[in-house]
Amino acid sequence: DLVMTLLDAAISDPQHSTVLRDYSYTAMELVTTLGALARNDDNKHAFIRRGAVNVLIALIESGDAKEKECAICCIQRFAFRDNIRGFIKNDSRTEEVLRVMLEHESRPVRAVAVETLHLLEHGPKVTQDSSSGPASFSEVDYSDLTESELLGEGAFGKVFKAKHRVWMMDVAVKKLALRLSSN
After folding, report:
1. pLDDT digits (tens, 9 = 90+) for 132-146
2. What are phi and psi of 53, to 5 degrees?
3. What residues form DSSP beta bridges with 39?
4. Does the pTM of the predicted model rise above 0.85?
5. DSSP state of 20
6. Distance, CA of 116 to CA of 113 (rounded, Å)
7. Which letter does DSSP use for residue 125 in this model?
């Protein structure tokens, strides 16, 4: 309830921020928190019952490009669950707003709107490599990454810290060095 109340207040504020006690929260921080909490299916259901989608739609309509992108990514996080995806899909307003975002001037906003509409229509893309063992690695599309920062470099390549837009979390990315042997 607290996150939703704060997010609602932040969206209503012209600066898209709100204050609790002595700390100011931006709408972007609150959406990121909402997305992180939505990793848990029980939390997803609770937030959906409290009107999270409508609040996120309000931010998509009124926010700047970064806020729009973050809110769409949060809707994406909710849509990975079949029954919630059905709820979101049946809410024609969500798809209508996402279709408007296909024409947005910001490429990242357009890209995440396309991905979310695809997810709502076809469900999540599931790929699993059983040969990877207990620790798994994923190939990611570089367009899903933002704010990369070099963490280290070695004989096999460079490691970057980046934010994955869809997963709404920091990830480590290893960019392998391509070395051609003279043999």
Report:
1. 444 455 666 677 777
2. -60, -45
3. none
4. no
5. E
6. 5
7. -
